[in-house]
Fold glycerol kinase.
Amino acid sequence: MTHILAIDQGTTSSRAIVFDGNMQPVASAQEEFTQHFPNSGWVEHEPADLWATVQSTCKAAMDQTGLGVDDIAAIGITNQRETTVIWDAETGAPLHNAIVWQDRRTAQMCERLRADGHGDQVTAITGLLLDPYFSATKVKWILDQHEGSRDRAKAGKLLFGTVDSFLIWHMTGRTAHVTDATNAARTMLYDIHKGAWSPEMCAMLDIPIEMLPEVRDCASDFGVTDLLGGETPIYGVAGDQQAATIGQACFEPGMLKSTYGTGCFALLNTGDAPVASNNRLLTTVAYQLNGKPTYALEGSIFIAGAVVQWLRDGLGIIANAAETQALADEGSGNVTLVPAFTGLGAPYWNPECRGATFGLTRDTGPADMARAALESVGFQTRDLWEAMRADWPDGGDAVLRVDGGLSANDWAMQFLSDVLGGPVDRPAGLETTALGAAWLAGMRAGIYPDMDGFAATWAREARFDPQMSEEDRETGYARWQRAVAATQAV
Ligand SMILES: Nc1ncnc2c1ncn2[C@@H]1O[C@H](COP(=O)(O)OP(=O)(O)O)[C@@H](O)[C@H]1O
Ligand SMILES: O=P(O)(O)OC[C@H](O)CO
């Protein structure tokens, strides 16, 4: 019982990583699955694909190690958040495809709820903003499509879950209907102050409370699975951005991390009291241990690494993401790209606007576009940083810890430090999300250190300090702000 298996069920792929007794990754496997776009702005996954790729990647990772079921002390799960599944409690058949967090189909529903004056109530109870991003309106949408589904849900015949919950139900032989507090906090159905499902939110959206899973601490007993051919406990669960916050050991109030994958999600630990945002950030649960929640302010940006993918797949000006580093160096810096491909997230929350480019000239070329794309990631983070500083005035000295695929890009990280005017730290291990889930499970299983011991193992690979003049920084940021305003005005 020396190793931990971490499952990272993400938006575009499922991954399984085996960590040894020293919390080092020793094997990993990854598998992509099909994204479904049935309508403009709609994004779906087939639940069976999520479950199948989790099974196959776990097997593939385990096969690489030569370890057996008895070597795995526990499993930790981390997952794409908010994505919504409803399934039959007996057969497991999904009532609908999973509606993914990026899906905007409930934008009008949110608009109507806002017009009916529900916006403040939603924020007061859930810490979130009334936006299609979260699970609740997706649940309502699915139930609205299927006559009689609410009665079935009330009778316990239909279950709702975020992806962790859906996976655990399958992993435990269709028995455990559970989730953790971080995933619950993203549904817009959870009262983050009371630490319980909100009857008010359920009533507002006509969602039977009976269909919601039981909420547990992040390190707790989520059930036993025969996934590895024996009995393995599931001891750790956290939404992927919270798992990265844990993996980055942001355990003290004021510590913050930003993860640059498809999108960018920055979380600032605010300690044991939820901080209400005056700047359109989200108040959420960072983690919950021993029955005690620790809260965070979160800024969610929908497009970060995805803008680099667009350079590759949409424009065809690069062959792979890493090429942007050298290209950006040659860019003029005169082009501004606002990658509002699916609207804008925090702090603008504008689901309707779309991307725009400014400053094009006849000699604009791939290098300028690559630079503008990487700059957009830095500028969007600055937007969040400004909002966080305003909500949490003590946050000015914090060092931003970064991770995720795009954080490997030195040019982007240097620009990020420049535009923030503060240091940026990149850790030695970039598997922070999976590590967070592994640590939760390993700590609970008694093979990994406690919180302080774990935090002491965090090591820096690189620090980026600002090199840009104050004048350039502020001129550049003002250019970005004008571009965002113009983008929203179109
Ligand atoms: N060297 C790089 N420079 C710029 N972007 C990168 C680089 N490497 C990866 N990316 C971007 O990072 C993203 C992948 O990061 P990852 O953390 O695996 O994301 P996710 O978990 O959301 O799929 C992709 O969008 C890719 O374009
Ligand atoms: O799967 P990722 O890494 O794109 O993360 C998705 C987030 O959890 C959405 O809130």
